[in-house]
């Protein structure tokens, strides 16, 4: 069996955008699980994504008590044989791989956010680190982004960074 995932983070609605981009809503309808790595800002985003499909998410540093009461700081699940963890912040890019190996030793895939910078690396211990960027606030990036991927029998594959056209 294959499980298809949508990865998003740092939606910052309504501060950075009024609504989720149509590309994210379309992608959410085509996956088995929506993963949000925090900084939703509005509980309405959680409710909207939950109406589109199952959601696994965490709260971020910009999320208030309404989201913190509904979401964990770290989420963990085993999905099709892949041990997945989700967290908002992992600290500076320098030394990230070693820090995450130490912090998440029994994890195959760590999804994180906070920086708004897409990230896809594998640590020395084999932990896959993915940050989908932000679909609403590109900051210094050339485009707003999100990711999709698939999990099958303990493998992570078909990781795609999707760029959202401006306007």
From TrEMBL:
Its EC number is 3.1.4.-. It comes from the Bacteria. Keywords: Metal-binding. GO terms for molecular function: hydrolase activity; metal ion binding. Residues 4-153 form the Calcineurin-like phosphoesterase domain. It holds the Pfam family Metallophos_2. The keyword ATP-binding does not apply. The keyword Nucleus does not apply. Its cofactor is a divalent metal cation. NCBIfam families: yfcE (TIGR00040). Belongs to the metallophosphoesterase superfamily. YfcE family. This is Phosphoesterase. It comes from Microbacterium proteolyticum.
């Amino acid at each position: 069996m294959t499980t298809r995932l949508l990865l998003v983070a740092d939606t910052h609605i309504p501060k950075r955008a009024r609504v989720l981009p149509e590309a994210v809503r379309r992608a959410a309808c085509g996956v088995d699980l929506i993963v949000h790595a925090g900084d939703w800002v509005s509980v309405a985003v959680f409710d909207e994504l939950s109406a589109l499909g199952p959601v696994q998410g965490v709260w971020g540093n910009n999320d208030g008590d309404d989201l913190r009461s509904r979401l964990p700081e770290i989420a963990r699940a085993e999905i099709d044989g892949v041990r997945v963890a989700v967290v908002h912040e992992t600290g500076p890019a320098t030394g990230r791989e070693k820090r995450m190996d130490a912090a998440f030793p029994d994890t195959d895939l760590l999804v994180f956010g906070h920086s708004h910078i897409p990230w896809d690396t594998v640590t020395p211990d084999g932990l896959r680190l993915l940050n989908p960027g932000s679909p609403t606030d590109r900051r210094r990036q050339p485009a707003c982004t999100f990711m999709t991927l698939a999990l099958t029998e303990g493998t992570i594959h078909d990781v795609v960074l999707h760029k959202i056209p401006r306007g």
